[in-house]
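Raw record, unedited: Carboxypeptidase regulatory-like domain-containing protein
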Amino acid sequence: MWLRLLTLVSLLLSTATLGADTSDAGVPSAPVRMLRVRVLDSEGAPLARGRVQLVPEPLEGLQAWLDLDGRGEANHPAPSPGSYRLIAYWKVEGQFRRYVWEDLELRPGTDDERVELRFAPASAPPISGQVRNLDGLPVAGVTVEARQQFPSVPLDGAFLRNSAWPRELVAAVTDAEGRFTLRPMREGDYGLDVTHEEGLGRVTARTGGPAVDMKLVPRCARTASGRVVDERGAPIRSFQVGSHRFRDAQGRFKLGNACYLNIEAAGFVAHGGPLLSHPSKHVDVPDIVLERGRQLTGRVLGPDGTPRKDVLLSAHWEGITSRPDDARSEASGRFSLGPVPTGREVTLTATWDGSSVRQRIPPGKDGKVTFRLPAEKARLEVRVLNAPGAVLPGAEVQARSDAGTFTLRTDSSGQATRSVPAGTYEVRVSREPRPEPRTPRRFAPLSVQAVEGDTAAVELRAQPPGTGRLRVLLPAPSHYENIHVVPGAHDWPNDARELGRLLEPGLAADSQADVWAQKNVPLIGYTSQEDYSGLVPGPYTVFATNPYDDGPKLLLFRKVVHLPGSGRQVVQVRYEGEDTRRLP
């Protein structure tokens, strides 16, 4: 029975198929226009198994990756008419990664588009040098990799972006005398890297430049020793370095494989500091002075004297190297935080519900604190508009005063209101509504006086976009926030704290719409460039820090540029030369 039923179903299906609409039968479908790419290596032979990247001019355009077959060819349905860049990549594992590119204009039509890309023979002068260990002996058999710092494409063009940033790489192995010769295809600056059990090596070299001497330095100290003392120079006999406990009459310690020192002792403030990339196998640390500490204990009270729960408290002071863990107030308002120095003024910050206020604690042994939150008897009313005058719902606004910071968020009418303590405030848009536009809106901060019992009204309107454009390029990709652009011409800061104040009015960069538009968005985004559009012509200061630098002190790049009203200004960050300093 089941067999007859299956046969019947089969007949019904076949009848339905045969009886289907065949009005288009015999009409040939329109041929698909193809993009046919052929890539040749430096000797003119087909480049088998390479890859080609097809980059559209619009930043939000979807890119395509084409795999070359054994004949060095790849076929892909031709995209819509427009401007494109083709980048072919040639990779030989352990030797090099090269690229060649061509910009093309696809016009309307039905004929296939054929493009041939060919790698030129390597003609750049070589980079040579020697790798040695800390004892000055040559290191044989180690791989030296050189990465091109800036691509050989137009740096101010529309096609250069984080998702289409070609970077040449070439590698070589040192001989018995530790010598190497790198033969890149393109001239320019290269970052040379060595990773070996003897240590790490990193230098910058230029094709055709003098031979480089690379010394391998352990990233962490092989061994480190030192002494822990109090402010009077007396040894602290019992202390802890990291997870190791020490008891020594002279306060001495010795560690192996130390990257960071965090020293704690009962009754003292913790001290921390890195032990990175010292040019010796053993590091003799200068005396580490621990300051006597006190525990801050007390209660957080509201303006009416009632206890406040779940207020986060943190401490900061001048010269801090290791901050104590934050504390949160209990239902009774009680908290305990420390240790903090007895001989220094400490700033205690309380944070709750998008607000934060500060209280200064004078020096002294007494650690009892009553943190009374200020009475919010003034009212702040903020309205946020875009440049044409339309309201902006969902914008985050910060009102800052000497006492603290208060956060507001605009509603559907573009307005935000809240009670604040009386005082003078600087009001600024701290975050735009999502989704953020490709080019950020620029808002000038406004100052307002909030009077007790009254309402202070503020309107923040985006400035009309200017015609200035700026592009900042990093010599190596980074997943940290390393680039900062500040309006105006600024001199070198005296220290890291002053740098922090300088960076507060920093500009937001254009969104990386090219990265988010692709099918495979990276889990961790690496940045090689930041673009800034819609800037008012005038002076700007570019600051950049180096995430790959191990110190000592903070390595800072600074350059003042003057943006004209047309074109794009390009800044290439180089962590050496007159544009780079180490801050105290």
